[in-house]
Design goal:
Length: 315
């Protein structure tokens, strides 16, 4: 143990996520068209954004699911986090072939495999710049499609998981990893941030009969890039999704693109930022008034957990 008392340490970043996917070829096509750099390594794919960090590992499997989620903490805090996770009820004993000797590994109350390791910050230390180009008189505001170039996300923003118990999940991650509640809507959806400064949410939870991976979200620089990203994916054959719109909780402009396995990748711009040392007042919002400020109707396939056994799948 360090000099810190139990309950005083927190992760500062998502280092990366790992997904099981039924087809690496399909995954490569989807994420490359999304604007990420996809590289092959010993039978798996790695996802990089413009910042060059390895944000994702895609592992060959017979089904899509979260393989694990990896967080980073400051040097010297790992043993405190281990104690916090144990006190919160983390399962350190369950076997997994994915566990390595780096950092600590445990299963959360839903059975998600979690790694925490000492590592560099991957989350920004201040609000990421958002560009709103404003045309002056006698100036063209837009540009031609061919001048736009390929939309390339700058970095990962967050991951949203399905859980059978949103309040249990937020309580666990608060106690184990120090993730604080940003905002929530009843026991239906909740968003959490790290106290070291990060986006409004790096990890969020939505209610479902089973655990599952709903979406990964990627920061882009402009509202144009959100819309152009949607076009980029539509041209590649990925026309199902939700957006363009603006969220209430997190405030980001969004467009979600459905991946080949029914989960989503989100283009996100101008998400709220909770600065280090700030006491963000968590809000309680009615569901009908919090999902989006504006945008198209939510498609019926958007809030569907494709990892739920068929007989339990929600419409
Ligand atoms: Fe999101």
């Amino acid at each position: 143990m360090t000099a810190q008392s139990v309950g005083s340490a927190a992760v500062h970043s998502i280092d990366h996520f790992a997904l099981n996917v039924p087809s690496l070829e399909q995954a490569e096509h989807f994420y490359e068209n999304f604007g990420l750099t996809v590289t092959r390594h010993d039978g798996e794919l790695h996802l990089h954004a413009a910042d060059n960090h390895r944000w994702g590992r895609l592992l060959a499997s017979d089904h899509k699911s979260l393989a694990y989620l990896s967080f980073a903490c400051h040097k010297g805090e790992l043993e405190t986090i281990r104690a916090q996770a144990q006190a919160a009820g983390a399962d350190f004993n369950r076997d997994s072939s994915l566990k390595t000797g780096e950092g600590i590994w445990f299963h959360d109350p839903d059975g998600n495999l979690i790694q925490v390791k000492e590592g560099a910050r991957t989350m920004p230390t201040s609000k990421t710049p958002f560009h709103v180009p404003v045309a002056q008189e006698n100036q063209r505001g837009a540009y031609s499609r061919s001048e736009g170039g390929r939309v390339q996300p700058r970095r990962l923003s967050h991951v949203l998981l399905f859980t059978p118990d949103v309040l249990r999940a937020t309580a666990f991650y608060d106690k184990a990893l120090g993730l604080r509640l940003s905002d929530k809507s009843q026991d239906i959806i909740a968003f959490t941030h790290a106290p070291h400064g990060c986006d409004h949410h790096i990890l969020a939870f939505a209610k479902s009969p089973a655990k599952g991976f709903h979406h990964c979200s990627w920061d882009v620089a402009t509202l144009d890039d959100v819309g152009r990203g949607a076009d980029q994916m539509g041209a590649a054959g990925y026309k199902k999704g939700w957006g363009v719109g603006r969220h209430v909780l997190g405030s980001n402009y969004f467009h979600y693109v459905q991946d080949p396995w029914g989960s989503f990748s989100e283009y996100s711009a101008d998400i709220d930022y909770v600065a280090a040392g700030t006491q963000w007042e968590a809000g309680e919002y009615p569901p009908e008034d919090s999902m989006y400020l504006w945008g198209p109707d939510v498609p019926d396939y958007f809030i569907v957990n494709t990892e739920t056994p068929a007989e339990e799948t929600q419409a």
